[in-house]
Amino acid sequence: MQNKSAFSTLTVAWAAVLSLMLFSFADSAAGQVNSANYTFVVASGFLCDSGDSGSCPAIAKSANGDSYEISGAGAFDLQNKSVRAAGTFNHKSTNGNMLETGVWTASDLISFDSYGIAPSAFMHMQKGPALGGPQIGFTRLPVSSGPLPTGGLATFRVLLTPVSGMTKTAVLQVNCARGKVPDEHQVEGVRLAFEGGGVAFDEEVSGSTLFLLTRPGTGAVPKKRQSPEGDQNLPPSEPKP
Q1: CA 96 to each of CA 6, 65, 199: distance values in angstroms, whole numbers, following the listed order
Q2: 132 in helix, strand or coil?
Q3: Residue 232 within a domain
Q4: pLDDT in tens, 3-33
Q5: Residues 110, 102 contacting (CB under 8 angstroms)
Q6: Alpha-carbon distances, residue 70 vs 60, 100, 198, 201 (angstroms)
Q7: How many domains does the chain divide into?
Q8: d(CA 210, CA 17)
Q9: Dihedral, 143, 148, 154, 157 alpha carbons, nearest 10
Q10: Is residue 231 part of a domain?
Q11: How do residues 171-229 score in pLDDT, each as one tens digit?
């Protein structure tokens, strides 16, 4: 009961931190008109409202049958390789027993390969209700606001912090199989590999993911042209004779 309470507190705390990080990232990205910025969702939020039981959570399985359940959200900037993301994880044995549970945070963006724009993904955004409850994700994103659903493969270095035990460093791979998807990445989901060797969770069992592209220039705000009457630097008019 104590571990459950600790995990609940930790999850709520990280959800609040994630929200602050995303707002901060969005503010800084708005002024970077020459950079392509992305937000992403992993088996969370509106992706879980499709009625498909395989959408959430994202499950990666190892050869010995153990699995990791992953959910979360974040944002990254390709130009400076920055990333802000967090979520939750469950580590289960072959027979479904809980071995470990906690939160993950992304510390580095290793790579991102885009598969291109995925217009059909708008259906998820249009049908999904506003978010709430324990899922970590975004509030409803209006289609007209600018972000474009995009397929791709992102690789992050992440820290896994369990409720009890040592923090672990791993590589998290997020694949959104939309757009022009390569043959070797047709299965959507996540993979997890721990640094320093060990068991690799390299089988995507289930889970929906989505990247949202903010195009360069969409955050630029045109400067308001000042009228001559409001310009205090104009020379005074000459008096009429």
Answers
A1: 22, 10, 17
A2: coil
A3: no
A4: 444 445 455 545 544 554 444 444 444 444 4
A5: no
A6: 8, 12, 19, 12
A7: 1
A8: 21
A9: -60
A10: no
A11: 999 999 999 999 999 999 999 999 888 889 999 999 999 999 986 544 434 444 444 44
Ordered alpha helix ranges (H), 78-230: 122-127
Instruction: Name the CA radius of gyration of the chain, rounded.
Output: 22
Residue with tokens 């510390």: 107
pTM of the model: 0.72
Residue 228 lies in a domain: no
Of 139, 161, 120, 126, residue with least CA distance to 73: 139
Domain carrying residue 120: 2-222
Chain position carrying tokens 């460093």: 169
Asked whether 48 and 55 are in contact (CB, 8 A), the reply is yes
H/E run at residue 29:
helix 2-30
* Residue 227 within any structural domain of the chain: no
Residue 53 bridge partners (DSSP): none
136 closest CA partner among 82, 189, 70, 201: 70
Q: By C-alpha distance, which of 78, 74, 23 is closest to 216?
A: 78
Question: What Cα–Cα distance (Å) separates residue 90 from each residue in 8, 20, 21, 157?
Answer: 13, 24, 23, 18
What are 63-69's contacts with CB under 8 Å, separation 24+?
63/199, 63/200, 63/203, 64/94, 64/199, 65/93, 65/94, 66/91, 66/92, 66/93, 66/94, 66/99, 66/199, 66/201, 67/91, 67/92, 67/201, 67/205, 68/92, 68/190, 68/192, 68/201
